[in-house]
Amino acid sequence: MTDQEIFRKLAELRNRGVAVCLATIVETIGSTPREQGAKMIVCVDGTLYGSVGGGCGEDNVRTAALRCIITTKTTELIEVDLTDDLGTRNGDVCGGKMLLFLEPF
Amino acid sequence: MELIDRVNELLEKGETFCLATIVASHRSDVPSGRKVIILRDGSMEGEIESKQLRMTLCDPALEALKEKKKRIVEIAHGVRVFIDVLSADAKLLVCGAGHIALHLTRFARQVGFSVTVLDDRSEFAHTSLFPDCKVIAEDFTEALRDMPLSPSTYVVVITRGHEHDIECLVEILRNETAYVGLIGSRRRIRFVLDILAQEGIPQDRLKEVFTPIGLPIGAESPAEIAISIVAELVCIRRKGSAGVLALRTAVGGSK
Questions:
Q1: Which helix (H) or strand (E) holds B124?
Q2: Residue A89 distance to chain B (closest CA, Å)
Q3: Which of A10, A26, A77 is nearest residue B4 as measured by Cβ atoms?
Q4: Interface pTM (ipTM) of the complex?
Q5: What is the pLDDT of residue A94?
Q6: Pick from B8, B32, B89: CB nearest A75
Q7: Chain B residues inside the 8 Å CB shell of A26
Q8: pLDDT at residue number B162
Q9: Is the pLDDT of residue B255 over 50?
Q10: Chain A: nearest CA to B199, how far in angstroms?
C-alpha cells in the first residue's frame, strides 16, 4: 500500500471506531525486506494493512503492536533483528536490523 | 481538525510535505508520538509547542523534502524525530482503452498508481471495464486540453491507431511529465515522431518519449505487455529515467 492508501485507511478505521496501531520503519541497518518509511496498520483483531517486511520480522511487529493497542496504550520503539544464521528454521536471515515506531490510534 | 485528516487533505491536494514524529523523548512537553507537518514553504502545523524545537526541526525537514529522503534526527538531547516525506500517489493516464489497457490499469492500481483511462469510444472507455479508475470517454484532443498534466503524471499512449497517438502526444508533450511511453512498431513510432517534429515539438522532448514501451522481458500477449509497461513505471518511480535506460542498455535494447 502507498502512503496515501495507508493514511486514508487509518482515517477510515478511526472513523469506524476500530482500535489500530501504525507501525513505521524509521531506521534500517544492513539488508532489510522493506525500506525506511514503510508502514503497516495492525488492527485490534489482528488484521493487517500494508507491510513492513512480509514474513521477516513481521510477527514480532504484530505482537508488539497489539501490546501497544491493548495493554500499554502508548507508543513503542522496537528493534527487529534479522541476523539469524542462514538455514535457521523459521529464521529471519535478511542480515540487517530495523527500528520501528509503533503508535496506537 | 485532527492531524491525520490534515495529512489526508494535503495528499488529496497532491502536495509533497514532511510529517515529523517524535519517536524517542523523555521530555514531557514533547512526548513520543507528537507530530508536526512541515510544508515546502517552511510553515509548520501540529503538536510541538516549543519554538526552539520547531526551529531546529525546520532545516533538516526542508532538506529531506528537497532530497526526497526520509531521515532520523536528534533535535534536542535524547529527543529523536523521524522525518517522513509524504507524496500523493503517482498519477497514471492511459490513452487508449483496448486489450492492453484492461490489464495495465489493474496492475498499475495494484502497485499504487491513481489511474485515469481516456478513449473516444464510450463502449471501450466504460466504468464497468475499469474498476477503481477514472474513466473519460471523450475526443482525445479536447479531453487532454482540459487535463492538468504535471511532473508527477505518468502517461502511457496505447491508442488503436497512429493518428490518435499523434493527437494525444501533441497535447501531452507540451507539458512536463514524469514519463511518456508510446507503443508501436519501430516503423509506426518513427512516423509518429516525425509528424510531431513537424508539429513543432522540440527534438529534446521527443527523445524523452519511451519507445519501444515497456521493459524488455520478451512480452507478447496483452497481459505480458501490460506487465512490462507497469514494470517500467515502477522502475521510473523508484530509480528515475536513468534506471530504465541502464536496464535497456544492459539487455542491448532488444525486445
A1: none
A2: 31
A3: A10
A4: 0.92
A5: 77
A6: B32
A7: 23, 72, 82
A8: 94
A9: no
A10: 39
- CB pair distance less than 8 Å for B82 and A26: yes
Chain B CB contacts of A101 under 8 Å are 21, 23, 32, 82
* Chain A residues with CB-CB distance to B70 below 8 A: 36-37
* Smallest Cα distance from B137 to chain A, Å: 27
From the list A5, A24, A105, the residue facing B82 with the nearest CB is A24
Q: In the structure grid, which three cell numbers stand for residue A11, read together?
A: 482515517
CATH of domain B91-250: 3.40.50.720
* C-beta separation of B107 from B226 below 8 A: yes
Are the CB atoms for B78 and B103 separated by under 8 Å?
Answer: no
Q: pLDDT category, B151, cuts 50, 70, 90?
A: confident
CA distance B222 to B99: 6
Distances (CA, A) of A71 to A22, A63, A64, B26, B28: 16, 11, 10, 21, 21
Which residues, in sequence order, are CB contacts of B224 under 8 Å at separation 6+?
Answer: B217, B218
The domains of chain B are located at 3-86, 91-250
Give pLDDT, residue B150. 86
Query: Which pLDDT tens digit goes with each residue over B16-56?
Result: 999 999 999 999 989 999 999 999 999 999 988 899 999 99
Helix, strand, or coil (residue B207):
helix
Q: How many CB atoms lie within 10 A of CB A26?
A: 24
Q: Is residue A12 less than 8 Å (CB to CB) from chain B?
A: no
* pLDDT value, residue B14: 85
Q: Helix, strand, or coil here: B143?
A: helix
What pLDDT is attached to residue B94? 98
Give the pairing of strands A48-50 and B153-157. unpaired
Cβ proximity of B170 and B189 under 8 Å: no
